[in-house]
């Protein structure tokens, strides 16, 4: 775990290890997500649809959605 220091211009330098792990380079866009006192920095996906695809797999029990749809 590394620490970074906030500059007088409110900027930080992302450590080389983190940049390499995220495969980011100069000019790439990053997302900054903050909730309560936790901040997550991640690479902006080229396609949000592809990035979110499949994230809900396994959330519902087998046949739950079929039963729910039939109840409509």
Fold and architecture overview:
- The N and C termini lie far apart (50 Å).
- Helix content is 26%, strand content 17%.
- The radius of gyration is 19 Å and the shape is elongated.
- The longest helix has 7 residues, at 16-22.
- The protein is α+β, with helices and mostly antiparallel strands and 72 residues long.
Q: Spell the H/E element sequence.
A: HEEHH
Give the termini distance in whole angstroms.
Answer: 50 Å
Radius of gyration from CA coordinates: 19 Å
Overall, the morphology is elongated
Order of strands, main sheet, comes to: 1-2
Annotation, overall tally of beta strands: 2
Query: What is the CATH domain class of the domain at 1-47?
Result: Mainly Beta
The whole-number mean of residue pLDDT values reads 90
Query: Which structural class do you get from the secondary structure elements?
Result: alpha+beta
- Total number of helical segments? 3
Uncertain spans, ≥5 residues at pLDDT below 50?
none
